[in-house]
């Protein structure tokens, strides 16, 4: 096996050697990156020369239509040992607990749903085998909506590669660091980071610890982008420079490799005679990346009231309606609360948008108990929710001195359509069927 990863002198970068902590990256969001793992591999001045350098094949990978506006256009040119076209027929393999939209297993459920952590697998399970779908919306073949998954794995992917033609994978590790070996290079993602694998980009997940678990938003819709900032100005929220794309790294492996593709909601696979992670050089904008959520520049009120949580948007997948996201990825990061005469935790609300929340670590300031790291809640369209009784009573009488909220890292996948759960999610043993009780006992305080 040969791995060239642009780190140091180009020596083999085995999993035990670096654990990915000293990986080189190419910073920026949405820009034109370029990288070569062998000198001279990247053509100069053209994309598809008569013969590509070093005997490589040139191949374009488009994440948007050729004709989409320049600001949203995503494509990457790959220079690889074998063209992707050279592969045997794909055949259906079992989907496991992976599901896709449209979701029809159960009726859409207006109840507020909550789960504890997904139990760790007992049998050897890699990242792909460990994907379990919570629910989703839209239609995978129309490239609209999202699928929400948990993952729980205890093994690295061994001679197995995965990609989704159905959408981009926003991976939110909750436990266990991951080394993501992608066609474009290596990314290290640990709890507190998010990693994004674009539609169609092939990758393998190596576990850097004994087990790994977390969440995935599979975004069937338009690629995630940074939100507009409006009056905030030119800086703030997630800053573009903190997104890290890989540098070119390739495997020259002549060995049987199972290449799994998610297409139309199902898994298909073919056994190649080589690893398709054989891209020696590339340039473009359709790239994977990793982002440290602790870099998020949290903005909020410095006078009164709790801003709408859209102020915490890290990434957004727009729809055709301005301001209406197919999916928003929102983080509740450590921040100061200073509002005067203000109920500082999230307020009671009913929203047209639907909200799936997860907790990476610590606690969330609207729930005193029950919402635990690795767990999740789903508050669908117009379902009434907000602080639990204990939080309401505490926050309503708290002394309003400046307060640092720094004991947790929670996130939300917010989406335009209700999330229809899977049967597995509704019937799972780790579902908390007594969730409604957190709002019991909210006293009648009305004194006309
Ligand atoms: Fe909410």
Task: Please characterize this protein's 3D structure.
With 448 residues, the protein is mainly beta. The protein contains three helices and 30 strands. The longest helix is centred in the last third of the chain and has 9 residues. The protein is globular. It has two domains: 291 residues, Jelly Rolls; 138 residues, Jelly Rolls (Sandwich). Fe (ii) ion binds next to loops.
Roughly what fraction of the amino acids lie in strands? 25-35%
Return the CATH topology of the largest domain. Answer: Jelly Rolls
Give the name of the CATH architecture of the largest domain. Answer: Sandwich
Number of domains: 2
Pathway: Amino-acid degradation; L-phenylalanine degradation; acetoacetate and fumarate from L-phenylalanine: step 4/6
Region (Disordered): 24-51
Subunit structure: Hexamer; dimer of trimers.
Enzyme class: oxidoreductase
Short description:
The protein is mainly β and 448 residues long.
Features of the shown structure:
disordered N terminus; Jelly Rolls; 2 domains; 4% helix; mainly beta; binds fe (ii) ion; 9-stranded antiparallel beta sheet; 30 strands; globular; 448 residues; 6-stranded antiparallel beta sheet
Write the topology of this structure.
Blueprint: E1 3-4, H1 15-18, E2 25-27, E3 33-36, E4 57-62, E5 75-80, E6 91-92, E7 113-115, E8 131-136, E9 146-153, E10 160-164, E11 168-175, E12 178-182, E13 185-189, E14 193-197, E15 203-207, E16 212-219, E17 243-246, E18 250-251, E19 257-263, E20 266-272, E21 279-284, E22 289-292, E23 313-318, E24 325-332, E25 335-337, E26 354-362, E27 376-379, H2 389-397, E28 403-405, E29 408-415, E30 420-421, H3 423-427
Parallel strand pairs: 10-19
Antiparallel strand pairs: 1-18, 2-17, 3-21, 4-5, 5-21, 6-20, 7-27, 8-9, 8-30, 9-16, 11-14, 11-16, 12-13, 12-15, 14-22, 17-22, 19-20, 23-24, 24-29, 25-28, 26-27, 26-29
The structure holds fe (ii) ion.
The site of fe (ii) ion has 4 residues, from loops.
Keywords: Dioxygenase, Iron, Metal-binding, Oxidoreductase, Phenylalanine catabolism, Tyrosine catabolism
Pfam families: HgmA_C, HgmA_N
Catalytic activity: homogentisate + O2 = 4-maleylacetoacetate + H(+)
């Amino acid at each position: 096996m040969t791995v060239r990863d642009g780190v140091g002198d180009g020596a083999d970068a085995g999993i035990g050697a670096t654990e990915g902590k000293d990986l080189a990256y190419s910073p920026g969001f949405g820009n034109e990156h370029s990288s070569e793992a062998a000198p001279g591999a990247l053509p100069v001045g053209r994309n598809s020369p008569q013969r590509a350098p070093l005997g490589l094949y040139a191949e374009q990978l488009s994440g948007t239509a050729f004709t989409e506006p320049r600001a949203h256009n995503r494509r990457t040119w790959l220079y690889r040992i074998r063209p992707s076209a050279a592969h045997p027929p794909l055949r259906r393999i079992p989907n496991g607990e992976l599901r896709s939209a449209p979701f029809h297993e159960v009726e859409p459920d207006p109840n507020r749903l909550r789960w504890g952590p997904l139990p760790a697998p007992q049998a050897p399970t890699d990242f792909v085998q460990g994907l379990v779908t919570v629910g989703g919306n839209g239609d995978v073949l129309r490239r609209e909506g999202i699928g929400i998954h948990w993952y729980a794995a205890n093994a690295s992917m061994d001679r197995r590669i995965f990609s989704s033609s159905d959408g981009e994978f926003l991976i939110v590790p909750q436990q266990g660091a991951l080394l993501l070996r992608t066609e474009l290079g290596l990314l290290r993602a640990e709890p507190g980071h998010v990693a994004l694998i674009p539609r169609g980009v092939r990758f393998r997940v190596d576990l850097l610890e004994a087990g790994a678990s977390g969440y995935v938003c599979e975004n069937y819709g338009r690629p995630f982008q940074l939100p507009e900032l409006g009056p905030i100005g030119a800086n703030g929220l997630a800053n573009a420079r903190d997104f890290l794309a890989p540098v070119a790294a390739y495997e020259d492996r002549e060995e049987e490799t199972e290449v799994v593709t998610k297409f139309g909601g199902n898994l298909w696979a073919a056994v190649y005679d080589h690893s398709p992670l054989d891209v020696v050089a590339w340039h473009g904008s359709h790239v994977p990346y990793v982002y440290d959520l602790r870099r998020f520049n949290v903005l909020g009120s410095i006078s009164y009231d709790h801003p709408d949580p859209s102020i915490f948007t890290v990434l957004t997948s727009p729809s055709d309606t301005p301001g209406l996201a197919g999916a928003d990825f929102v983080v509740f990061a450590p921040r100061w609360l200073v509002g005067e005469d203000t109920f500082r935790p999230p307020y009671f609300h009913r929203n047209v948008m639907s909200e799936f929340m997860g907790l990476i670590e610590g606690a969330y300031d609207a729930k005193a108990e029950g919402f635990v790291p690795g767990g999740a809640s789903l508050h669908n369209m117009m379902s009434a929710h907000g602080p639990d009784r204990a939080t309401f009573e505490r926050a309503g009488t708290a002394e309003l001195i400046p307060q640092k909220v720094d004991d947790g890292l929670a996130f939300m996948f917010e989406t335009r359509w209700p999330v229809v759960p899977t049967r597995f999610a509704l019937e799972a043993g780790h579902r908390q069927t007594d969730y409604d009780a957190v709002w019991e006992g909210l006293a009648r305080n009305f004194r006309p």
